[in-house]
Amino acid sequence: MVIVDQATIESFMHTQVACWNSGDKNGFFNAYQEIAPSGLQIEYVGNPKGDGWPILEGMWSEQRPKITIEEVALIVTGNEAVAHNRNSVNGTDLVIETIEHYLFDDKGAMQVRYFIQQPGE
Hints:
Elements: H1 6-22, H2 25-35, E1 39-44, E2 50-51, H3 52-63, E3 67-77, E4 80-89, E5 95-104, E6 109-117
Helix pairs in contact: 1-2
């Protein structure tokens, strides 16, 4: 059983963003592995959900160099978290708003759903 109380979830949420912004790949992936040792599913809403580890790896390699994240809001209730993040495209005025839903279970698995508003929408 994995304990995912409010403090643990909040720490994970802030840690992943801090590691992303600082380019700390080991810290980023360690944060996910610690909170979801039994599995990770990721869904970009509108697309099928899939195994989160290769999706996360692809996100890191393709988007990390281009994006800086600003945490706008975080709400944690029970074993769920919702974050509003502002993703600035480095070197431009473009901003991509996301609403991210995280569901943690007591068996050490996590599901993430990304709602993405593209620039100009």
